[in-house]
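Hey team,

Filing this mostly as a record. A colleague (T.K.) asked me to run one chain through the structure pipeline before their review meeting, and I want the input and output archived in the tracker in case anyone asks later how it was produced. No errors, nothing strange. Just documentation.

Input sequence:
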Amino acid sequence: MEYIIETKKLRKQFGMSVAVDDISLHVERGSIYGFLGENGARKTTTIRMLTRLIEPTSGEVFLLGEHLEKNYPSIFSKIGTIIETPGLYENLSARDNLRICCMYMGVQDDGRIERTLTTVGLEHTGKKKFKDFPLGMKQRLGIARALVHDPELLILDEPTNGLDPSGIKEIRQLLKRLCEEDGKTILISSHILSEIQQLATHIGIIHNGKLLAENRLSRLEDGFEQYTDVKVDDAEAVQTFMQDRIEQLQSQVLSPQQLRIHSPIENTATLNKWVYQIQVFAKMCVMHAMLIPIASFFAIRWKSLKVVVLVVCTAIFLSFLNKSEWYPWIGPYLLSSNEGSMVKHFDISIAWFSLSLTFIVGLFLSIWSYQRRG
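Output structure:
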């Protein structure tokens, strides 16, 4: 097996403090290696040793099968890096920044700049200065700078830091394309597990400077219990509702407001939507049930059918306001999901049933009150 990055007992001490403790990494050629760890786990310190920005206290580093110390700095003509933030000129355009990079990297191919900008989706930026780029474009230009000399290996230190979900998705798609279509090997560090799961083929987990685990992502996932924790208003009610409608659901109530689902959940966004709809549905049933005694009270108090009709029409009106998203708390269940929501039809029928019941009971009580008066 060919390793494009390999370290042997890599160690870094600052005085008496051990920052990185005998780490041995193995990054296979053609893989996306997710270097995962919380903030302060020493991911950046390790990467700085890989790129020789700092020297290790002990241990060895091999890049592209060559010993780093014996092939420095020539080895970096085959490596592209982003360490923390892209180092680019604020007052220059994307093309001018890459042109300077080509000069000091010795790249003579003028078409390489345009091809690289097209690869990262920045071919239409024109003369716009780097300082005027939004954060996502700055990160993509940083990746372009790392790519412009066509390296075999990319080392990226948290390239999605600070990006919104749309920007993170763009970077993820770009890196996958670079690996699958261009054959690049990528080491990417991150503290976000969900992003590494969606991107990496291999993973190394670092904690307090120690490598806890390293393997293919699929093998690591097989060795750990998978579950989803959900915070809700009433965990037992949500559990009962979901168990009635999802076959073979395995779940556990951890607290009155926390539910743990052991069954595989492929799309947590859909799960959140389901739970939200269930809870709103429960609140709406309570609200409509409250309308019955309210309507009855007014019917007896003022002996007026008009008041009952007004109360019921108000409930219907508030529910329909949600269709224009003017009243987001009241009736989201009326807009059932077309993406497989388990309450797609159930919630609508119950909603109209509760409204109808309110009207019928109120009407009955009004007639009864008129009869008593007579």
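Quick notes for T.K.: The chain has eleven helices and 14 strands. The first strand starts at residue 3 and ends at 14.
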